[in-house]
């Protein structure tokens, strides 16, 4: 249940963050906003680690180096979400993001990428993705 609630909160906050970042980027620029957002996130996370952290940062030596690219991916996400919202608007951009996330997550699980447990892809997933694509078409279809 906590995982479901956490996922719902994440989706809501990501939508709000995308709009906030886009509005900020209209005033100061895309790259500048990305730097500010990532910098503020770093400072707050560092404070939380110092106050509440219970992990062991020294174990980072045992991690695969590719997993350190999460920060780089965060920069790409921040930049491309702002650009997408600026170009397409929040709802259309978010729908496309969700579709891309679902397809990518399915591929990661199908092929067991990044040490993820492999799952079998079934017709339910295919039908779900087809419905998502149909939903995008319906939402963007303008009757003239």
TrEMBL record:
Signal sequence residues: none
Keyword Amino-acid biosynthesis part of the UniProt annotation: no
InterPro entries the UniProt entry points to: YdcZ (IPR006750)
Taxonomic placement: Bacteria, Bacillati, Bacillota, Clostridia, Eubacteriales
Annotated TM spans: 35-54, 66-85, 91-114, 126-143
Keywords, sorted A to Z: Membrane, Transmembrane, Transmembrane helix
Record has Cytoplasm as a keyword: no
One Pfam family this sequence matches: DMT_YdcZ
Gene Ontology CC terms, in alphabetical order: plasma membrane
Protein name per its UniProtKB record: Conserved membrane protein
């Amino acid at each position: 249940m906590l995982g479901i609630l956490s996922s719902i909160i994440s989706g809501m906050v990501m939508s709000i963050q995308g709009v906030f970042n886009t509005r900020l980027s209209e005033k100061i620029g895309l790259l500048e906003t990305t730097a500010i957002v990532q910098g503020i996130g770093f400072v707050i996370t560092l404070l939380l680690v110092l106050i509440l952290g219970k992990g062991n940062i020294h174990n980072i030596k045992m991690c695969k180096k590719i997993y350190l690219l999460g920060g780089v991916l965060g920069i790409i996400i921040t930049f491309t979400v702002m650009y997408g919202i600026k170009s397409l608007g929040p709802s259309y951009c978010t729908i496309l993001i969700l579709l891309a996330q679902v397809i990518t997550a399915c591929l990661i699980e199908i092929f067991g990428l990044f040490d993820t447990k492999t799952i079998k892809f079934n017709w339910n997933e295919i039908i779900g993705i087809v419905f998502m694509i149909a939903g995008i078409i319906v939402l963007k279809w303008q009757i003239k």
